[in-house]
Amino acid sequence: LLCAELERHGWRREVSAEVRIAALAPVGDLEADVRAVRLTREPDAAWLARYQRFSTPGPHVLRVLGSGPSVWFATVPGAAGDAADAGPDAPPAAIGRCVVDGRWAGFMAVEVAPEHRRRGLATTVMAALARRALDEGASAAWLQVEEDNEGARALYDGMGFAAHHRYHHYRSA
């Protein structure tokens, strides 16, 4: 009813997303060679170059990205994990972000460069971040995925994530 009313008043749906939850241990147990993943407390220039939400994130975006009780940024270097072939500011092959808050680990910004997809890099990033979150005492995981992102939804299905709820983002016309 609310969606129909918003649309009747000229609001347009921009994105529909699904929030998913899972036990964290199976994500950490995924078979993945996490040695190529670099974990840091802050996003560097390379991580930001891969981040697709903003071409040049301003101070407010950087503040939000770094906020949370325990924030981790994962980076897989650009040459499919071979740091020697990529400069320090080259866009990575894959990135991810995890915020640990008590028993919950929230995963965001899991992104893989188009030329590196279907190689298991998203799984590798998720496993590395999950292992760090487990080390900090987390036991449950959540993430959100856009409903039209079939590849990511299939990936998260395979990791044991199940739908918790959906939401829609609207913008006035």
From TrEMBL:
SUPFAM superfamilies: Acyl-CoA N-acyltransferases (Nat). One of its GO terms (molecular function) is acyltransferase activity, transferring groups other than amino-acyl groups. Keywords: Transferase. Residues 19-173 form the N-acetyltransferase domain. The keyword Transferase applies. Coiled coil: none annotated. PROSITE patterns: GNAT. It comes from the Bacteria. Transmembrane segments: none annotated. This is GNAT family N-acetyltransferase. It comes from Streptomyces anulatus. The lineage of its organism: Bacteria, Bacillati, Actinomycetota, Actinomycetes, Kitasatosporales.
